[in-house]
Amino acid sequence: DRVRFVGIHTGHLGFYTDYRDFEVDKLIENLKLDTGARVSYPILNVKI
């Protein structure tokens, strides 16, 4: 419940990311001001 994952886009794989590689300063500032807000994204569950 206390682990945070932050995505940083550095290429063209197409994964969702929170920040671009040139926004690292913005990322650091946002981490300093973190209010603990939580954002969830649905995960696809597939059985083959």
TrEMBL record:
<keyword id="KW-0067">ATP-binding</keyword>
<dbReference type="GO" id="GO:0005524">
    <property type="term" value="F:ATP binding"/>
</dbReference>
<dbReference type="GO" id="GO:0016301">
    <property type="term" value="F:kinase activity"/>
</dbReference>
<keyword id="KW-0808">Transferase</keyword>
<protein>
    <submittedName>
        <fullName>NAD(+) kinase</fullName>
    </submittedName>
</protein>
<dbReference type="InterPro" id="IPR016064">
    <property type="entry name" value="NAD/diacylglycerol_kinase_sf"/>
</dbReference>
<keyword id="KW-0418">Kinase</keyword>
<dbReference type="InterPro" id="IPR017438">
    <property type="entry name" value="ATP-NAD_kinase_N"/>
</dbReference>
<keyword id="KW-0547">Nucleotide-binding</keyword>
